[in-house]
Design brief:
Elements lengths: L1 H29 L1 H4 L8 H10 L3 H25 L1 H81 L5 H15 L8 H31 L2 H14 L2 H23 L2 H4 L22 H35 L9 H6 L6 H23 L1 H9 L1 H27 L8 H4 L18 H6 L3 H22 L10 H17 L4 H25 L15 H26 L5 H39 L14 H5 L10 H9 L9 H4 L4 H10 L3 H21 L8 H14 L3
């Protein structure tokens, strides 16, 4: 009990003390004298200096002492209030110290083991590192020695190969290729034993490259597959095949572009020729822009030379392309063309041809834009320019057909086997078409501006004579001489355009427009008044003019047809274009004479109708009715209805014919016959007339019928029996 009371008292005292301590702490925190000690950046020296400066040291010391006393009391109270917790913490700390000591012992043992293992590993590791470095250096030294030995051997072999000339050039290139491989990835400078050899190798490579270039140029110019194949093998061995081919093709393109520029250079075209100079300096008879004929002669001479140059270079590039497509490396068996067109690049022939056509387009456009004389020459004589282009294309096709024969006729056996077993070409054309590329169209694209201008002028030349012979207010068609002039103009335009099928078609369309214009002009001259279709009186002025117009149209139709038929190798489409235009002329002629023909038909019909008013009894026919009825021509040649109609003319007046019984006019009866071509319908109409005659005889109580009546009935029955 006593202990318990004491515990309660202590607890109560602790509770009171804790409350008082909390109040004391709050007072300390609120006191400005102690607030500085709570700052994180509190500095003892600074605080001391401030206290001395304020000259209140004694007071500060007293307050500090009081604060220390209060804090001591507070700590005492906290220890008393939480002594059990503090004891528990102290016991835990002792246990933790024991664990830590045990861990430290084990860590020490582990560290000792690690030190012993380190002592056993480090020394072997250092030895391995040293031996590895030594081995690497030995390998580098051995590799370098092997390279040096091989270089010395190849250098000596290369000297002998160079002495063999072109026969050993491919082997020399192969040696140089191996020497290049030996020099890759290593610095051979400073090695005295091979310094001279390296210098010799550099000179040998340059010599082999130059010799191969000369061999390639010579082989391409002479189209010798052996020389070209040898040169290509050299560049392949040197590893420069693609760059060399690109350089060669670029050189060809540059040379052609320069040739095009020189051929179209207005200064060159107007310079005096050395052979044309007469007299002193400065005097010349060469063409100038004012001397059009001589200027154009010089221009076309240059154009022919340019076409020859283009054809020659294209043949050389095509020859090179075929060698590349067939030549294979004897070691790797890789086709040379595969190295050129890899990475999605076009083959050299397409690349070259595209460059040529673009150069032609740009150079022609530039030249004609800067010179009116060139523009007029190309526009005025476009067919001649087109003929040169067509001849160029044909010659290129011939080159393609002849190259394969040169391969097979080379007769050499020192080239590799691949050239000796070349397969036949599957295409004998210069450049095959592609879905998105037409090489011939690409060639002629540069001519489009001149073709348009030429066709425009051609249409003007065709229209001018027509507009001249059909003046405003004129009333007469062209004369024979004027029409002959128009026909000659049409024939001339077609003959000039015969150099090209497409140009012929375009000019034929112009001719068709010309024919249509002639028809329109002629139609305006036609008379459409009433007197143009009269057939009673003499010819009127309108009829005479219409006849002249129709004759003129017929003459045009006949002459143009003759011109078209006289054309050799005339395109069917062009012929159809002109024929379609001529059909309009034929229709116009028909429309012009149709009113007159209609009037003539009406007049003839009126005349035929008057025939029914003639008397055809006694002397006009020599056969009796019985003989007529027994004629073998009845039925097959002469219809029964016609014979019976004829016998009505021999009957008495009371035996009326069908149209008389129906009280029709001759015109109406003729129209009825036209509307009823059936023999049965006509026989039924006749039977009605005969039955009406019988009724009339009976009504008047006649004793006999007309003599011709039985014959008519017999014929009618015979005719009707065929329809039963």
């Amino acid at each position: 009990m006593e202990g318990g009371d004491r515990g309660v008292a202590v607890a109560s005292h602790g509770s009171l003390g804790s409350g008082a301590a909390a109040a004391t702490v709050r007072e300390l925190l609120q006191d400005e004298c102690y607030s500085d000690f709570l700052n994180k950046d509190f500095d003892v020296k600074t605080y001391t200096s401030q206290s001395i400066h304020q000259a209140v040291i004694a007071e500060q010391l007293a307050k500090l002492a009081q604060g220390i006393s209060q804090l001591d009391k507070e700590l005492h109270l906290q220890v008393v209030a939480r002594h059990e917790d503090l004891l528990a913490q102290a016991t835990g700390i002792e246990s933790l110290e024991g664990v830590l000591q045990m861990m430290q012992t084990r860590i020490g043992a582990l560290q000792g083991a690690v030190d012993r293992m380190k002592a056993k590993i480090v020394e072997p590791y250092n030895k391995i590192v040293a031996r590895t470095a030594q081995l690497a250096r030995l390998q580098v030294a051995c590799d370098l020695l092997r390279r040096i030995i091989r270089i010395l051997y190849l250098s000596k072999r290369l000297q002998g190969q160079l002495q063999g000339g072109s026969r050993e050039i491919t082997k020399a290139a192969q040696s140089l290729s191996e020497l290049d491989y030996l020099s890759q990835g290593i610095d051979l400078s400073g090695i005295e034993v091979i310094e001279n050899d390296l210098l010799f190798i550099g000179r040998a490579r340059l010599e082999v490259e130059n010799q191969a270039k000369r061999l390639l140029e010579q082989g391409v110019e002479t189209q010798n597959p052996t020389q070209v194949g040898t040169a290509l093998q050299v560049f392949h061995n040197l590893g420069t095949l693609k760059n060399t081919i690109t350089s060669v093709v670029d050189g060809y393109c540059a040379a052609l572009e320069e040739s095009i520029n020189n051929a179209l250079d207005i200064k060159v075209l107007t310079q005096p020729s050395q052979s044309a100079v007469r007299g002193g300096p400065g005097r010349s008879t060469m063409p100038t822009p004012g001397n059009t004929a001589a200027f154009r002669a010089s221009l076309w001479t240059n154009m022919e030379k340019l076409v020859d140059h283009i054809c020659t270079v294209c043949g050389q590039v095509q020859h090179l392309q075929k060698i590349l497509a067939k030549k294979r490396d004897p070691v790797s068996h890789i086709c040379f063309i595969e190295e050129i067109v890899k990475d999605g690049q076009s083959d050299i022939l397409y690349t070259f041809w595209n460059s040529v056509t673009q150069a032609l387009y740009s150079q022609f456009q530039m030249a004609t834009n800067s010179s009116m004389f060139l523009k007029q020459a190309f526009e005025g004589e476009y067919p001649k320019l087109l003929r040169l282009y067509n001849d160029l294309w044909k010659r290129l096709q011939q080159y393609s057909q002849n190259i394969q024969g040169k391969f097979n006729a080379s007769g050499t056996t020192d080239l590799y086997v691949d050239l000796q077993h070349m397969e036949d070409d599957t295409q004998d054309i210069f450049i095959p078409k592609k879905p998105d590329y037409d090489p011939e169209k690409a060639l002629k694209d540069s001519l489009q501006p001149y073709e348009a201008a030429y066709l425009s002028k051609s249409l003007s030349r065709l229209f001018d004579p027509i507009n001249l012979v059909f003046p405003p207010g004129g009333r007469n068609p062209p004369s024979a001489d004027e029409l002959e002039g128009i026909i000659k103009t049409i024939a001339s335009e077609l003959n000039v355009a015969a150099v090209d099928a497409n140009l012929t078609l375009a000019v034929s369309k112009n001719v068709a427009k010309t024919i249509q214009l002639y028809g329109v002009k002629s139609e305006q001259l036609l008379s459409t008044q009433g007197d143009a279709s009269q057939v009673i009186g003499p010819l009127t002025e309108g009829q005479r003019r219409n006849v002249a117009v129709v004759n003129s149209l017929f003459k045009l139709h006949q002459s143009v047809t003759k011109v078209v038929c006289s054309q050799s190798s005339f395109p069917p489409e062009a012929e159809q274009t002109i024929i379609s235009a001529l059909k309009t002329i034929h229709v116009l002629m028909g429309n012009a004479v149709q009113p007159l023909l209609t009037s003539v038909g009406d007049a003839i019909e009126a005349i035929i109708i008057t025939m029914h008013q003639e008397d055809f009894s006694g002397p006009l026919l020599f056969q009796t009715s019985e003989h007529v009825a027994s004629s073998p021509a009845l039925g097959d040649i002469i219809p029964f209805s016609i014979i019976i109609q004829f016998l009505f003319t021999r009957a008495p007046a009371e035996l009326k014919s069908p149209f008389q019984r129906a009280e029709w006019s001759h015109a109406r009866f003729s129209q009825w016959l036209d509307d009823h071509p059936s023999e049965k319908d006509r026989l039924l109409l006749i039977r009605g007339a005969l039955e009406a005659y019988v009724q009339s005889v009976r009504s008047r109580e006649g004793k006999e019928f007309a003599p011709v009546y039985p014959i008519m009935v017999q014929l009618l029955q015979k005719a009707m029996s065929a329809f039963q």
